[in-house]
Amino acid sequence: MLLTVILAAGFVSDSAPAAVSISRATAPRFTAKDVTGRTVDLDTLLARGPVLLDFWATWCKPCVEAMPDLQRLHATYGERGLTVIGISVDGPRNHAKVRPFATRLRISYPIVIDHDERLRHLYQVVAMPTVVLIEPGGRISSVRLGYRPGEGSSLELDVAMLIAKSGIPDSSASPFDGEIIDSPLDRDRR
Fold first, then answer.
1. SS3 letters for the chain?
2. Nearest to 55 by CA among 145, 158, 162
3. Is 110 exposed, middle or buried (0-12, 13-18, 19+ CB in 10 A)?
4. Phi, psi of 56 (to 5 degrees)
5. What is the pLDDT of residue 20?
6. What residues does 84 pair with on adjacent strands?
7. What integer pLDDT is reported at residue 166 of this predicted model?
8. How deeply is 171 buried, as exposed, middle or buried, from its count of CB atoms within 10 A (0-12, 13-18, 19+)?
9. Res. 167: pLDDT tops 90
10. Cis peptide bond prior to 28, omega within 30° of 0
11. First-to-last CA distance in the chain?
């Protein structure tokens, strides 16, 4: 219930993206498959460092604008323990478009399609995009609603502080490093 109240307060406070700290809330655990068929298990990922969940949709312009910042965070901090997971909340008509869409944007972090809206409901997501930053211990560090250009630097500061606080060495390789999401349709067009 606390998460609902805080998210709603951040959403209605103004039209600017909201950074909401909820340091006492525990992140709901989940296991899902990404668009390439790999298993994404929150507990496993938290064992190596912070996890950033990005709830987005192909039709959401601010979501798409935020993706280069998230890709940069993945590339910069992935070896230091950060895992970025994109969670598409697109409806059933757009499910087939998600993987080629991410490929076109050259996204290399895992993308999960929230087919049954289970993850959106678990995290009580009410606006797109919503970014949830989770500490390695499983506590939610912050929730950000919306996106404005240039906001990536404050999110990067939050990520860097979590990584420094965690004491994670630079050599911690991500299970999702370096692979651009690719679809058979895209390979056929080359």
1. CHHHHHHHHHHHHCCCCEEECCCCCECCCCEEEECCCCEEEHHHHHCCCCEEEEEECCCCHHHHHHHHHHHHHHHHHCCECCEEEEEECCCHHHHHHHHHHHHHCCCCCCEEECCCCHHHHHCCCCCCCEEEEECCCCEEEEEEECCCCCCHHHHHHHHHHHHHHHCCCCCECCCCCCCCCCCHHHHHHC
2. 145
3. buried
4. -150, 175
5. 43
6. 52
7. 80
8. exposed
9. no
10. no
11. 49
More confident residue, 150 or 70: 70
Residue in the structure block whose two tokens are 């993850």: 119
Residue 51 token pair = 């996890």
Q: What are the phi and psi torsion angles at 174 (to 5°)? A: -85, 145
- The topology (CATH level 3) of 2-168 is Glutaredoxin (3.40.30)
Question: Mean pLDDT for the chain?
Answer: 82
- Taking only the tens place, the pLDDT of each residue in 3-55 is 433 333 333 333 344 444 444 589 999 999 999 999 999 999 999 999 999 99
On whether the CB atoms of residues 24 and 141 are closer than 8 A, the answer is no
- The pLDDT of 69-85, averaged and rounded, is 97
Domain spans of the chain? Answer: 2-168
Encode pLDDT of 117-126 as tens digits.
Answer: 999 999 999 9
